Amino acid sequence: MHLGALILAAGEGTRMRSKLPKVLHSLAGKPLLSHVIETSRTINPDEISVIYGHGGEAVKNHLAADDLNWIEQKERLGTGHAVIQALPHLQQVDQVLILYGDVPLISGPTLVSLLSCLHSSDLALLTVDLQDPTGYGRIVRDRDDRITRIVEQKDASARELEISEINTGIMAVNRDKLETWLSRVDNNNAQNEYYLTDIIALAVADGVNIQAVHPHNEEEVMGVNDRKQLAYLERFYHRNRADELMQSGVTLADPGRIDIRGELKTGQDVFIDCNVITEGSVSLADGVSIGPNVVLKNCAIGVDTEILANSVLEDCEVGSGCRIGPFARLRPETQLADQVHVGNFVEIKKSQVADGSKINHLSYIGDSEVGSKVNIGAGTITCNYDGANKFRTVIGDRAFIGSDTQLIAPVTVGEGATIGAGSTITKDTPAEQLTLSRAKQFSIDNWVRPVKKAKD
Ligand code: UD1
Ligand code: CA
Question: Domain 3-221: which CATH class?
Answer without folding.
Answer: alpha beta
